[in-house]
Amino acid sequence: MPELPEVEVTRRSFAERIAGARITGVRLGAPLRWPLGCDPETLVGFTVGQAQRRGKYLWLPLAPEGGLLMHLGMSGSLAFGDTLGAPGRHDHFDLATSRGVLRLTDPRRFGAVVWSPALDQGVSAKLLAGLGHEPFDSALTPEMFHAALRRRRTSVKAALLAGDIVVGAGNIYACEALFGAGIDPRTRCDRISRPRAEALLRELRLTLAKALELGGSTLRDFRDAHGMNGEFQGQARVYGREGQRCARCGGTVRRVLQGQRSSFFCPGCQRR
Ligand SMILES: [Zn+2]
User: Fold this and answer.
1) Segment holding 229, helix H or strand E
2) Predicted confidence (pLDDT) per residue in 16-40, tens digit
């Protein structure tokens, strides 16, 4: 599943090239998770603005009005270029522009492209309503993060995955950040001290920054964005390493199920 770093790397891969392009055509394939929400013909002649990201959504503002909110779902990827060729059976959205075609390929079709009058209006406002802070937003201070954790009784892992305090902590990144901070994933949120909350926020930012760096340095073709999880996993310290030796303490990495998701952690390094 594409996580926040892949979505951000995808955005960076085409944002500058598509900005200022004029839409020349829109092609829809098989139905995606949600309908486009407008007659695709009405978009022809519109100009594409600066692509933004919010959580795992991409927002492509259009002039004179509105924009397209995109989500990659479980298996989606976006490619932009002028040599993409004829659409294949998994290509379900093409935005043809004066600079090239932006194409959504999505075999499982949980992704979506939705028109909205603005990022904070209509369908976009609804879809983005529950999202927490962006991880690198300096407005999210350790004090705020700690205060938000104090109000919850769920496990810290569940709170990270929920994404309503801070977005971007997908399973692999949540496990790695908790390891970095020395916090057992089963720890109750309201039992986490201020210094440990601060350490967790710092580790989450470090983990995501590392993933972004990896994506930026290893992806020649952003259609390979799905490879990022795999690349990052190769460097993971606990994720996917059940039964293996912890590089920090020499103990054994364990796996537990939390809400149907696997949590990997080192009992020697991570405390409740
Ligand atoms: Zn350890």
Assistant:
1) helix 227-234
2) 999 999 999 999 999 999 999 999 9
Strand partners, 257: 262
Say which of 11, 53, 56, 157 is annotated catalytic: 56
Q: Which of 150, 188, 202, 261 is catalytic?
A: 261
Output the CA 163–ligand 1 centroid distance in Å.
26
Instruction: Give the relative orientation of helices 4-18 and 194-218 as an angle to the nearest 10 degrees.
Output: 50
| Ranges of the chain with pLDDT below 50 | 219-222, 224
Distance in Å, CA 169 to ligand 1 centroid: 21
Q: Check residue 216 and give its pLDDT.
A: 58
Please give the distance, rounded to the nearest whole angstrom, from the Cα atom of residue 172 to the centre of ligand 1.
17
Q: How many CB atoms sit inside 10 A of residue 130's CB?
A: 11
Active site includes 56?
yes
Cα-based angle 111, 136, 166 (whole degrees, multiple of 5): 60
Active-site option among 3, 8, 176, 203: 3
Surface-to-core class of residue 137, CB atoms within 10 Å of its CB (0-12 exposed, 13-18 middle, 19+ buried): exposed
Alpha-carbon distance 25 to 96, whole Å?
5
- 2 catalytic? Reply is yes
Can you tell me the distance from the alpha carbon of 266 to that of 246, in angstroms, rounded to the nearest whole number?
Answer: 7
pLDDT tens column, 232-251: 778 899 999 999 999 999 99
